[in-house]
């Protein structure tokens, strides 16, 4: 009891005392010693081979542990020790004199390489998450993690690592890349034109969507024009295309011919529109309004009649959606939710899974039908859908759902 108290109160202890404490049979004594910040490196090195995994974990977490001991811990039989070491790895950047740095760097590179090849996915995952923003890690280690068989390891590196060059990324894409990894690359800050071209050439819809949503990505005007031409059949691209920082007048005018009215309004608000484009957008909006007057009036009348007869239920709207009668579904949601047609159109055009779910909730739809609305009317990609609970209920509370609706009422 006395020894444990003496160690834990952080009063300075001599080298000889620490040697004795490191051999103490009481694990609490050794644990407290392993946590200390004033223990000589050779004592920490000795404790790296302690019989207790708890002690070795403390040594793995201790930023003062000598690099040579970390090399031992990188091969520890207990995966929790290796995980703790992987979590600490960013602290291993050597702050040493130039003549010491090269030798220390070799040890660190060896530790990183061992952890990058660890058989336990969690170890590699923690390492990747720790190194994803690092500017000093060995290129070979980063490339190994980027090529890992597990997405949870590779994706953070592919999305964030500044060490990966455009050449590295192009090689990864050319070698065949799963959709999730392409999406990770697509989200990189400041992604270059060559890599953006390569992503588009894969024809991976999810990756291209992520690329378009990445406003920092550099996409050539010719490539954007190409995507705009393909976009009428790909609703999920409409909003990110409309919101791209740079759009040619040609692309802007083309988008105006097929995007939803709410997105057409967004195009009209873009700064720097030339006179010809501004006039075209205004004319298109006028045409849409005139065209919708008849169609929406008819759909709205049918929705009101069905509602009065007690027949505007989920089943009726689901059948209308399947048959392609989207106007009746939109108007039905407006009637049931008591929201205006403009509000309903804005929410559906937002591509917000939570917003569309809140609209369905306001219209007293089941969560199962809300999922159908998200995907078929809201254009929400499958991976972004808000899913029903196991009991079929809404996964969001009433306050959160009301908050989502208020976001649109304020816009």
TrEMBL record:
Pfam annotation, one family: DUF2336
Lineage: superkingdom: Bacteria
The keyword Iron appears for this protein: no
InterPro entries xrefs: ARM-like, ARM-type_fold, DUF2336
Keywords tagged on the record: Coiled coil
Coiled-coil stretches: 264-293
Annotated protein name in UniProt: DUF2336 domain-containing protein
Species the sequence originates in: Denitrobaculum tricleocarpae
